[in-house]
Amino acid sequence: MIRVLVARNAGYFGVEVRVLLSAQPDLKMVGTLPLDSDFAMRAVGLAPDVVVADTELMVGQVLPIATDLHQRVPGCSVLVLCDPAKRGMLPPRHRGGRVSFLLKEASSQYLAESIRRMAAGERIVQPRLQMASMNTQRDLNTRELEVLGLVADGDSVRDIAHRLSLSGGTVRNYLSAVITKTGARNRVDAIRIVRRDGWLF
Prior knowledge:
Blueprint: E1 2-8, H1 17-21, E2 27-34, H2 39-43, E3 50-54, H3 59-72, E4 77-82, E5 99-103, H4 108-119, H5 127-134, H6 142-152, H7 157-164, H8 168-182, H9 187-196
Parallel strand pairs: 1-2, 1-3, 3-4, 4-5
Helix pairs in contact: 3-6, 6-8, 6-9, 7-8, 8-9
């Protein structure tokens, strides 16, 4: 039996994952949790094999949460349901770890089969999302977006360094790079610009 946990950001009700998977006897829905900085800690008690993240958050904001989850529940994989019309929801080009990516409009059969493959150790990126990611111009890399997303959530440099296993100097370097690449005046302005351009929620 594969244990599936749904993650959503507050106030967002999108794909009915539970309904889509209800006819699959080998998949057990163990709950729905808000996708926030405490997600991984709360997920531990539910012992999921796969987390399906149905969210409006951008990939740069989801990846730090996935990193926390993998540290606390090492065998768990994360599947992010993406809207290819939103640039910030596209898969990263060069990294992603045990995070997989599927279209929000994926059929129940495709979703269920993807969960089974992930539980067996595979990583999945739906081809349409992979092509959209490759064809999209982006100045910021995934790690820079992760760091900026955590700053936007109110985390300090020290918090981010601990969470992403980086030094404080490296975090500050990422933030400086973001400010330079976006032409922003400061971190707050960089967050505004990146949100305007669809890379952060």
